[in-house]
Write a structure and sequence with these properties.
Helices cover 63% and strands 0% of the residues. The model has no long low-confidence stretch (mean pLDDT 87).
Length: 124
């Protein structure tokens, strides 16, 4: 399994749940890159379907659909910002769960305004 995470006492036996949680904490993925990756795969051959992408990347068809929708429904200003950042705290903060409500807003201007407020909250 590897070395025990530093936040868990060396005297304590680690559970599978704690181990998986520790792995997730160190494995932050940029949801925009994930959506773009699936979309590029689908666009590389017009015969590919979401099910094909799911098999290729080892995820569910629903996951492919969710991430492609997230990528497509956010304005390019937001996706470009998130794709061009190398700051781990920004990648950790802007998870799919935080970005998903933006996709429900009607206008791109509203989405950008809300996103800017989220960035301000992160800075403070």
């Amino acid at each position: 399994m590897g070395e025990k995470p530093s936040f868990i006492s060396s005297k304590k036996a680690i559970t599978e749940r704690e181990w998986k949680s520790a792995l997730r904490k160190n494995n932050w993925k940029n949801p925009i890159f994930e959506g773009q990756k699936y979309l590029e795969y689908l666009e590389s051959n017009l015969d590919f379907k979401y099910q094909d992408a799911a098999k290729e990347f080892g995820v569910s068809k629903a996951r492919v659909c969710q991430m492609v929708a997230l990528y497509n429904r956010l304005p390019s200003r937001i996706t470009e910002y998130l794709m061009n950042t190398d700051e781990p705290e920004i990648i950790k903060y802007f998870t799919e769960r935080r970005l998903r409500p933006l996709t429900l807003l009607v206008s791109d201007d509203d989405k950008i305004r809300k996103f800017d407020k989220m960035k301000e909250a992160l800075a403070n």
